[in-house]
Design brief:
2 copies of one chain form a homodimer. In chain A, 65% of the residues lie in helices and 3% in strands. Chain A has a two-stranded antiparallel sheet with strand order 1-2. In chain A, strand 1 and strand 2 form a beta hairpin. The longest helix of chain A has 35 residues. The mean pLDDT of chain A is 85. At the A-B interface, helix 3, helix 4, helix 5 and helix 6 of A face helix 3, helix 4, helix 5 and helix 6 of B. The structure holds a DNA duplex. Chains A, B: Keywords: Coiled coil, DNA-binding. Chains A, B: It holds the Pfam family MerR_1.
Chain lengths: 133, 133
DNA sequence: CTACAACCTGTAGTAACTACAGGTTCAAGA
DNA sequence: TCTTGAACCTGTAGTTACTACAGGTTGTAG
């Protein structure tokens, strides 16, 4: 209604974040408590919208909500830039580990799939391999 | 007590699977219901132990419990070898996608971390980048 | 026979949402 | 002004794959 105030539905549309997720973020205290209309509907302004987008970007980069919480405190100037760098470097490390692990998995699965010779025998060589390996 | 019957604790030790996890697998029907001692303690034999190890190997390869359930039905000769191959190939595909996504993340995070010049300014360039990107 | 380790059941918690049910408010058209 | 229905509200339960209790029972070694 008034300038720059949007409902949760519009916020959801403009950010691509589910309404339930927005309410969930508020509940766990990662999004600020918004103003309400006379009837009790949530009304958001630019600040909250930016924060929501920030959260989503972080989530897409693989940060946990707990890490996002810390990053937000940095944005609110409660922590130093150092903290951000540390969190990010940890994140990079864990991503590299995950990539390595996934590559190993891939290799093993390709090996296993190769043993599957697509016949309709009652015994499957891949299953047998898994039972023994 | 009798030959080859072991308690849940021993099964847990020999497989490295948590006692609670073993009971959980039974509850969701992925492990068969074991015999019980007179007093009601679970007693496992070789068959169940092998099945548990199989489940764990599959989990380590990134299969979901639902997929493991299907693989087990194959082991029990209810489905053909084809099914196994299909599940495995899907698994390989999804792993490759995950690897690609993680590589992108890694790249972006390294870029962001580079903007962090580790000074104690109140404004952090990485956070600013995240708020705008 | 007594300790006490190992087991039992059942419930609740974890992460990060999603999906209802059952009720209220808002806004546009008649 | 009234009505209708979309959009909103709260609160609870479900998802995946476990893990962690609490409070009680059984097994076994000394």
């Amino acid at each position: 209604m008034s300038d720059n105030q949007i409902t949760i539905g519009r916020l959801s549309n403009s950010t691509g974040v589910n309404i339930e997720t927005i309410r969930y973020y508020e509940k766990i205290g990662i999004l600020p408590i918004p103003h309400r209309s006379a009837g009790g509907h949530r009304l958001y302004n630019r600040f909250e919208s930016d924060r929501l987008k920030f959260i989503r970007r972080c989530r897409k980069l693989g940060f946990s909500l707990d890490e996002v919480r810390t990053l937000l405190r940095v944005g609110d100037d409660q922590f130093s830039c150092d903290t951000v760098k540390k969190i990010t470097e940890n994140q990079i490390k864990s991503i590299r580990t995950r990539i390595r692990d996934l590559r190993k998995l891939e290799k093993r699965l390709v090996e296993l799939a190769d043993q599957c010779n697509t016949n309709d025998n009652t015994s499957c060589p891949m299953i047998n391999a898994l039972y023994q390996s």
